[in-house]
């Protein structure tokens, strides 16, 4: 997180004055950066996660920074549970009187070869990332946005070339992007815009702690393959999110903004491939066409 004294949003100070926002997974990493942007621009921001105590701690820490908006903790919410989501959305609407902005940032996955992913593991990742995002959108729409309009941003991850080593998550996130395409048409008459931000490999302390040695692999092997030759910052993601949420993006719905330093357009070495594969050849190939 940037130091308080150096943090300055590129957006207008009162951009979200009077607006109520909900950011899932808003206590750490990219989510926290989104919360900082929104609160610094005047919004009341509710953060949710499974661990309510951590949410309160994060809210206290952020409020101490003295933003013009404020940050509040929501009730403990497991986005795999429909009842938790229904309660979270009704809590926000009842307590704060509105739900103008929803950012679906909570998500999770684990690194595994696809061949080793169990049905239960696959289901857990799809339930968290795809079903959880759907239920959050549906409840926000049914409980508030259908009658009042609103703006939703779903945070996905790079999935243009699949994601070897985290197939389940990339498949679920591609599903979120496709779901967004359907919802943007169904909900436009309610003045609801819904978009996605698709981050590439972003450096956050919490993210790199989670991935352990894989984090080191990212730095050594992937950074040199990225067109930008560096990772992204959480603030580079949150400023894209804020733009999509603001009125200046009034004609933008159903879109996916990639914040990835061009990483979607090159093959990233997410997993190591042996020097020689036994892929059979059909037709003529000169020896020099092989390793
Ligand atoms: N972050 C990761 N998994 C989650 C879940 N099931 N509910 C809420 N936040 C999460």
UniProtKB/TrEMBL annotation:
Entry GO MF terms: trans-2-enoyl-CoA reductase (NADPH) activity
InterPro entries xrefs: NAD(P)-bd_dom_sf (IPR036291), Peroxisomal_t2-enoyl-CoA_red (IPR052388), SDR_fam (IPR002347)
Top EC group: oxidoreductase
The EC number(s) this enzyme carries: 1.3.1.38
Pathway linked to the protein: Lipid metabolism
KW Ion transport (keyword) present: no
Keywords: Fatty acid biosynthesis, Fatty acid metabolism, Lipid biosynthesis, Lipid metabolism, NADP, Oxidoreductase, Peroxisome, Phosphoprotein
Catalyzed reactions: (2E)-octenoyl-CoA + NADPH + H(+) = octanoyl-CoA + NADP(+); a (2E)-enoyl-CoA + NADPH + H(+) = a 2,3-saturated acyl-CoA + NADP(+); (2E)-tetradecenoyl-CoA + NADPH + H(+) = tetradecanoyl-CoA + NADP(+); (2E)-dodecenoyl-CoA + NADPH + H(+) = dodecanoyl-CoA + NADP(+)
UniProt key word Phosphoprotein: yes
A Pfam family the protein falls into: adh_short_C2
GO cellular component, one term: peroxisome
Compartments, as annotated in UniProt: Peroxisome
GO annotation (BP), single: fatty acid biosynthetic process
Self-association state and partner proteins as the record states: Interacts with PEX5, probably required to target it into peroxisomes.
Function: Participates in chain elongation of fatty acids. Catalyzes the reduction of trans-2-enoyl-CoAs of varying chain lengths from 6:1 to 16:1, having maximum activity with 10:1 CoA. Has no 2,4-dienoyl-CoA reductase activity.
Name this protein carries in UniProt: Peroxisomal trans-2-enoyl-CoA reductase
Naturally occurring in which organism (per UniProt): Cylindrotheca closterium
